[in-house]
Design brief:
Blueprint (H helix, E strand, L loop, with lengths): L5 H13 L5 H6 L22
Length: about 50
């Protein structure tokens, strides 16, 4: 296995943090208008979005 560069490691960590559900208080505050995170991804089905 290869080594990850720091830049790639930071990008992957950011993507991992972003890949969570929207908090319940946000759903309530937006009156269920914002229920899913737009940048959500599945590790098997889709690749990461380019920034």
């Amino acid at each position: 296995m290869g080594k990850k560069t720091l830049a790639k490691k930071k990008r992957l960590a950011k993507a991992q943090k972003r890949n969570r559900r929207v908090p319940a208080w946000v759903v309530m505050k937006t009156d269920r208008e914002f229920t899913q995170h737009p940048k959500r991804h599945n590790w098997r089905r889709s690749n990461l979005q380019k920034e």
